[in-house]
Write a structure and sequence with these properties.
22% strand, disordered N terminus, 2 helices, alpha+beta
C-alpha cells in the first residue's frame, strides 16, 4: 500500500479507500502501529480534547477507544 502525502487525515483516507474497495488487507504489527501513530498525530493537529484508550493483547493492538470531551477554553466563550 502506498502512503499518501503528509497531509492531515492520511490514516483516515487510507482506511476509507480500502473500505470503498470492499476489502481490508491484513496488516503487519508494524503497519498497525504506524497507523495508530498517524491517527494520533492527526488528532493532535486538530486540537483533539479527549483521551485515547489502547488495549494491547499479547503484544498486539486489541482495541482502541476514543473519548472526546468539550473544551470550553476553545469553544469561543469570549473570555
Amino acid at each position: 500500500m502506498e502512503r499518501e502525502g503528509t497531509t492531515a487525515g492520511r490514516a483516515v483516507k487510507n482506511v476509507n479507500n480500502e473500505r470503498q474497495n470492499g476489502k481490508l488487507p491484513r496488516l503487519s504489527r508494524s503497519e498497525k502501529y504506524n497507523r495508530l501513530v498517524d491517527m494520533l498525530n492527526d488528532l493532535a493537529g486538530n486540537e483533539f480534547t479527549g483521551y485515547i484508550k489502547v488495549n494491547f493483547s499479547q503484544g498486539g493492538i486489541g482495541r482502541i477507544e476514543k473519548f472526546e470531551e468539550i473544551s470550553f477554553n476553545k469553544a469561543g466563550t469570549g473570555d
